[in-house]
Amino acid sequence: MAGVAEAGGQPQAGQPPVGRKARQLLTEGARLHEAARTVLADHARALEAVRTALAPLQAELVAQELESIPVARLKDVTEGRLRLGAVETAGLGSVRAVYEASRYELRQIPGVGAQTADQALAAARQIARAVEETVSVRLDVDRPEPRTTALVVALRKLVEAGPELRRAVDAAQRLDERLGALLPEARPTAGWLRMAFTRRHRRQSAFAAVVGIRELTADAATRDIRLLLAQASTDLLREPASDIEAWVDFELRSTEYYSQLAEISEHRADVEAAEGFLPSEVAERVHGQSLDDTHRRVSLRGYQSFGARFALAQRRVVLGDEMGLGKTVQAIAVLAHLAGEGHSHFLVVCPASVLINWTREIRSRSTLRALPVHGADRQDAYAEWRERGGVAITTYDVLHTLPTPKGNGRSKTNGNGRSKANGTKPKTSGDPAPGMLVVDEAHYVKNPDTRRSKAVAAWTDHCDRVLFLTGTPMENRVEEFRTLVRYLQPALVPTIDHGTAVAGPHAFRASVAPAYLRRNQRDVLTELPALLQVDEWEEFSAADQEAYRKAVEAGNFMAMRRAAYADAERSAKLQRLRELVSEAAENGLKVVVFSYFRDVLATVQEALGTPVRKDRARRVFGPISGAVPAAHRQRLVDEFAAADGHAVLLCQIEAGGVGLNLQAASVVVLCEPQVKPTLEHQAVARAHRMGQVRTVQVHRLLAPDSVDDRLLRILRNKDRLFDTYARRSDMAEASPDAVDVSDGRLARRIVEEEQRRLAAQG
């Protein structure tokens, strides 16, 4: 009975438990295993409910696409081997007609044999599978119908459970896999007698299994996994929401709904586009980077997860995603990951207009402590951050007043202790550098000679990890992009030259890939509602023409641009603006009005002060301008978003086009064209961004035979180059006249041309 002697006495200290203690441990493990399996089952039912509601909507979209594909395309799939003459003669003109036919129905067509029928069906199904991967269901909050309502109700259960559900499901899957294997293996340890009659190798396996169960249950207790699983089950077993509740919640949190939908439908966007067309070696490095979500309170879209991992893997980069794709969320995900690795201090630098937005986003989307370092108490706040850690959020204007920390290997000097980046010796604090420096709207530092650029350069020299965020890394010249990269990876700068840019997109992408990632809305936000852009051409009234002629004679470019609003009572543009706003009011839509000029906005504000009807006053918020404090700007945006039904928000385009989220609006009015196309792109993207649930209408007010007309013609090539290159992570100066044109030169050119035109007219 050697086995009994071995296992029959009381276990020595440090040995695995046997008998009563083992039974208690096995019971505890079995309960934990059951809780994990319950969560997985509840989650599977919730997913199945969504898929069931999604299937008919997706099938209809696929059918519509197949209807538009001529049946002759089936030959392409079979490399021309398929004979379709008889099929077409029978009236089956689209791929849909073949796809929905049965093998028997096809064989009834004269001249179609069994082989042809089988080949045609196989080809149609192959095309249908390809189409299914590209179609995306859009939920129209203005036109709910039973099928979309069922989908929204099913999705709400998952959305309501929040990002903690993903953690619970991941934990449940790990526990189910581990405990499912360990519990049967450890069963002999429940009794001394059973262990006595168990073979030696089996006893060793049982002991190892019970040790594994003990470790799992102890870890679950330490991390409150039981509570996490219990909460997930409670959330998943809640009664379904009413139709109205679900639609209201969708309108408030459409981003979360679409994130769940994209994950469940396994819709595969263009992978290359979602990964910014990075070379394979860089993409593979990013794929190998993990992403800790312990301190994150928000789920990430696939492209957002890739962006965060890109910043971590490459350490010092520019994230240049088009506006509306969630650059802030990706940055927060990076900070949360680094916090999970033990980093305690982070610094965000941003324009004053978005400081409040950053503070709110960090607090709501992570467990990290956000501390604004701004205003009269900024030094006290900075001292508190140095002592307690968290995410310090400061502005460009304040950054230069803060002592830079001691370096950590990134700082480079020119031999006399002076920073190579800015030629001055920065004041250092002796404190460790932040775990990461985030610079928002980084195009603000494209001029290296400004004070804010020098301050950013000093901090980037002392930080190992730096993330620049900008939706407009290049406005006019490649040199601006070279400046941003010079802060981060100076060794790359020689590769970013005019020759590389002119060589085309692929050459440029390869040269900047280690430091630059950009994705576009149309490539990764397939569910984003349509953007309808309309140029509203309005002939000058007599008053407009008189004001315009005077501005041209005076050579005043800015007066020419706003001459159409000089006489509010007789302004053609203002009349059209009133009509657009009145139409929006009748449909309960919110409107954002952008202008470069404060006096134009004041005129618009006065013109819109008249009620739409005597019994309903129009609510006009703003104007938001550079003179409005950041806190007040955000308050105006919040009040505008919270207003019931129709409202109007007035924004100076340089102030409202940066950092403010205006997706409550579905109508955008641009009072005049802008000298820089990026200003318009930025402004429109504030409304047409992730979270928008309605089609966005953009109306640009223009006057023919005027500065508007002239400006658009001159900038058309410039805008096209921006679209062709900047929107695809590329830069070019192939057309200096179109790209490298300063505002001053452009203004002089237009003034001179208009003076000649009007003089010729007498």
UniProtKB/TrEMBL annotation:
<keyword id="KW-0547">Nucleotide-binding</keyword>
<dbReference type="GO" id="GO:0004386">
    <property type="term" value="F:helicase activity"/>
</dbReference>
<dbReference type="Pfam" id="PF00176">
    <property type="entry name" value="SNF2-rel_dom"/>
</dbReference>
<feature type="compositionally biased region" description="Low complexity">
    <location>
        <begin position="1"/>
        <end position="19"/>
    </location>
</feature>
<keyword id="KW-0347">Helicase</keyword>
<dbReference type="Pfam" id="PF00271">
    <property type="entry name" value="Helicase_C"/>
</dbReference>
<feature type="domain" description="Helicase C-terminal">
    <location>
        <begin position="576"/>
        <end position="737"/>
    </location>
</feature>
<feature type="domain" description="Helicase ATP-binding">
    <location>
        <begin position="308"/>
        <end position="491"/>
    </location>
</feature>
<keyword id="KW-0378">Hydrolase</keyword>
<dbReference type="InterPro" id="IPR049730">
    <property type="entry name" value="SNF2/RAD54-like_C"/>
</dbReference>
<keyword id="KW-0067">ATP-binding</keyword>
<dbReference type="InterPro" id="IPR000330">
    <property type="entry name" value="SNF2_N"/>
</dbReference>
<protein>
    <submittedName>
        <fullName>DEAD/DEAH box helicase</fullName>
        <ecNumber>3.6.4.-</ecNumber>
    </submittedName>
</protein>
<dbReference type="InterPro" id="IPR001650">
    <property type="entry name" value="Helicase_C-like"/>
</dbReference>
<feature type="compositionally biased region" description="Polar residues">
    <location>
        <begin position="410"/>
        <end position="427"/>
    </location>
</feature>
<dbReference type="GO" id="GO:0016787">
    <property type="term" value="F:hydrolase activity"/>
</dbReference>
<dbReference type="InterPro" id="IPR038718">
    <property type="entry name" value="SNF2-like_sf"/>
</dbReference>
<dbReference type="InterPro" id="IPR014001">
    <property type="entry name" value="Helicase_ATP-bd"/>
</dbReference>
<feature type="region of interest" description="Disordered">
    <location>
        <begin position="1"/>
        <end position="21"/>
    </location>
</feature>
<feature type="region of interest" description="Disordered">
    <location>
        <begin position="402"/>
        <end position="435"/>
    </location>
</feature>
<dbReference type="InterPro" id="IPR027417">
    <property type="entry name" value="P-loop_NTPase"/>
</dbReference>
